[in-house]
Design goal:
This protein has strands at about 15-20, 25-30, 30-35, 40-45, 50-60, 65-80. By secondary structure, it is mainly beta. It has a single domain (about 15-80), classed as Immunoglobulin-like. A hairpin with a 3-residue loop joins strand 5 and strand 6 (about 65-80). The chain starts with 15 loop residues before the first strand and ends with a strand. This is YabP/YqfC family sporulation protein. InterPro entries: Spore_YabP/YqfC.
Length: about 80
């Protein structure tokens, strides 16, 4: 498999989302948590937000660089 890497300096203000199957999502350059329950996690990503929905969701890690959401992911919404 070939992966394309875009240097961070070419995408200022953008977040990067990496999915590991439907069990984990890693959001880099996350601007903070806006909503959190075991069925939904909504995070700020620049001027927009991303909402993960599913079952048994939890925030495994939250650092200045990234947020990790674990659980059974059933949906991803990109919000204005």
């Amino acid at each position: 498999m070939r992966m394309f890497e875009i240097p961070p300096e070419m995408t200022p203000g953008f977040s990067r989302i990496e999915l590991k199957s439907n069990r984990e999502a890693v959001v880099e350059n996350c601007g903070g948590v806006l909503e959190y329950s075991d069925e939904a996690v909504r995070v700020k990503t620049g001027k927009t937000a991303v909402r993960f929905t599913g079952r048994n969701l939890k925030i495994r890690s939250l650092t200045a660089d990234a947020l990790v959401v674990e659980g059974f992911l059933t949906g991803i919404e990109f919000l204005q």
